[in-house]
Each structure stands twice: as C-alpha cells, then as structure tokens.
Automatic annotation (TrEMBL):
Location of the region described as Disordered in the Swiss-Prot/TrEMBL record: 36-76
Transmembrane regions listed in the UniProt entry: 96-118, 124-149, 161-184, 196-218
Coiled-coil stretches: none
PROSITE patterns in alphabetical order: RUBREDOXIN_LIKE
Protein name: Rubredoxin-like domain-containing protein
Key words, A-Z: Membrane, Transmembrane, Transmembrane helix
The keyword Transmembrane helix appears for this protein: yes
InterPro entries: DUF2231_TM, Rubredoxin-like_dom, RUBY_RBDX
CDD domains named among the record's database cross-references: rubredoxin_SM
Organism: Desulfosarcina ovata subsp. sediminis
Keyword Membrane on entry: yes
Composition skew (Low complexity), residue ranges: 43-71
Pfam families attached to this UniProt entry: DUF2231, RUBY_RBDX
Length: 224
C-alpha cells in the first residue's frame, strides 16, 4: 500500500493508486503525489506553504521577498499586503467571517416565513435588520475566502472551489437584492402581492447557496 497526498488540500489517501478525484477538494488524480518515500515527499509540495514557513525568518519580517526560496512561495509575495493576507489565513479570517451569514441567514429566512404566516410586523423588521448585516458581511466573506483559496490551496480551480465561489456570489447578490427590495417595500413579507412568491423563492435560493458553500467549506476545514 502506498500513501498519496493531494497537493491542493493536503488530504492523504492510502492505496495502490491515488483516487480519481480528491474526496475533500475535488482535485483530479494528477494532483496527487506519492509520499510513501519520505525523500520524495518534501520536494513537490505547494500546499505546505500555508502551514509552515519554509524560508528563513528574516524573509517574513522584512517586506522584501527572499530570492532563495526553494519551495513554492506565497501567492502574495509581490503584494504589499502580503503580511495582512497571511495573517488572515493564519487566524482563520474566512471561517470566522463566514459565520456571520451562516449564522444569520437561517434566522432571516425563518423570521421572514414566520412573519408572513402569522403576520408579525416586528419579526419582519428584525429579519430586515439581520439581512442587512448579512449583505454588509458578504464582501468580507468573499474576500477572505479568495485569500484563503490562494494561500491554502494555491488558487486551484477544482469543482469544489468553483461551487464555493458560485455559491458565495449567489448569496451576495441575493442578500443585497432582498435587502434593497425590503428597504423599498417592506410590506412584501406580510402583505399578499404578485411578487411575493418570487421573493420567497429567492430567499430559499439564498439559503440553499449558503448551506452548500458551508458544507464544502466544512469538508475543507475538517478534512480528516
Ligand atoms: Fe484535495
């Protein structure tokens, strides 16, 4: 039996062959390397850059990137915001920020449906405020997700990441659309009108997209 490592997410597979597709990040078979031999393992390992700092410490402290870095470098090595971006990944900026929409969105949708069913104006107002926080948080969520994707996964475009990016964009667009809609016409929740079905459907799309992104995000974080 051999050991294979996904060079995108670091998932370890044991078997004679690597899997056709990484079960964690969706990377193809070709992205797996044989790590059965310890000597071979250290050479091609782009995913390691996030966890360990391969270069000597002065390179991190000074703004100037080291020229003699043998390992794959930070994707932000030429950016003046490199330290900020690396800190965002090290201190889990994306998983933390993503809990704002993932915590509030189910509450928003629940409040909107309860307000509609029981004609609760106060609950409708609460939903609008919460949705506003979600809409405002989404740019930070998208940005920290992009930074994490570059830092931890080398920006590899596998199906898991394309789904996450699509879901993040759907949540952002629908949250802003519904929030502006409610600012213009808050009565759409409690007053029967022709656009109300579309309004509820968009709420469910938003919730589904957030749940899908969260599901794949959880798989990437808890990859064991
Ligand atoms: Fe993977």
């Amino acid at each position: 039996m051999k050991k294979w490592k996904c060079t995108v997410c670091g998932y370890i597979h044991t078997g004679d062959e690597p899997p056709d597709k990484c079960p964690v990040c969706g990377a193809p078979k070709s992205r797996f390397i044989d790590i059965s031999e310890p000597e071979e393992a250290s050479a091609p390992e782009p995913a390691a850059a996030a966890e360990t700092v391969p270069e000597e410490t002065p390179a991190v402290e000074s703004e100037a990137p080291a020229e003699t870095v043998p390992e794959p470098e930070s994707p932000f090595k030429d950016s003046r915001y490199r330290q900020l971006f690396e800190m965002m990944t090290r201190y889990h900026g994306h998983p933390i920020s993503v809990h704002i929409p993932n915590g509030l969105l189910p509450v928003v949708v629940l409040f909107i449906f309860l307000a509609a069913i029981f004609n609760l104006k106060g609950m409708a107002t609460a939903a609008i405020f919460n949705l506003g926080v979600v809409a405002l948080a989404m740019p930070l969520v998208l940005f920290s997700g992009w930074v994490d994707w570059q830092n931890r996964f080398g920006g590899a475009m596998t199906n898991v990441f394309s789904v996450k990016i699509a879901c993040g964009l759907i949540v952002t667009v629908t949250a802003w659309l519904l929030f502006i809609w409610l600012l213009v016409n808050p009565a759409v929740i409690t007053t029967p009108q022709s656009a109300r079905v579309a309004f509820f459907v968009i709420n469910l799309i938003m919730l589904g997209a957030a749940a899908t992104a969260g599901w794949y995000g959880g798989k990437l974080v808890f990859r064991e």
